Amino acid sequence: MRIATIGHAVFAATMIAIGILGLIKGDFTPLWDPVPKGVPELAYLCAFISLVSGIGLLWKRSAAAAARVLLAYLLLWLLLLRVPGIFLAPTVEFWWSSCKTAVMVAAAWVLYVWFAADWDLQRLGFATGDKGLRVARVLYGLALIPLGLAHLAYVKETAALVPGWVPSHEAWVYFTGCAYIAAGVALLIRVYARLAAALSALQMGVFTLLVWVPMVAAGSKDASQWSETIVSWTLTAAAWVVADSYRGIPWLAVGKRSGPSDARPALG
After folding, report:
1. Cα–Cα distance between 71 and 92 in angstroms, integer?
2. Cα separation of 134 and 131, whole Å?
């Protein structure tokens, strides 16, 4: 097996689970929503690519190809099915779905940089190494800002999700929304970027564990709550991978670019 970081293993396992779920349901998992109508075959393709790429990411001989395929597929999904919607139907749904996909693309791109084979380095050098890693981090940073703005735009709705035992619900909504925005800006300008990436991933994970997991663990039959749990967990796993890409960079570094040792961690 080829495990670069714990985040890599969790992300790969998550993709496998999403693939299995999609094949069992015979439908799109929440990760892909909203989806084109009248193309049932696409649901199976999404599930198949998730499953195969997730398995491939865990094996040394297939990691490069799996990362390449997953990145290409997610990038096409972002460019063809998400970005146009931002301009043609600029609703919160499209902004949220676009950010969700962008976080996934960022994680896949980091893994592609890590596992890039000689073929990739020679023919697709612009997408590997420091350049590729920089693009992945910028994409992740850009995605965090609208996520934070969504919190601030829907304070009451988000506050209703905060567990009852936590005081000052709306204050936490403002705090987490501003935290996402601050993290996104920090990543874009490379000021305390490692800290920002780690804390944003932690925030997603805490939100998943404190909000969605208790709901489904209590036996909720609400499909939307199950969907949000799946999406929140997947985003946490993806954010974890991006945060892992900063290993080797000081926590409070300002303006530091990644070098070869940062871009490709020791692989076992």
Report:
1. 25
2. 5
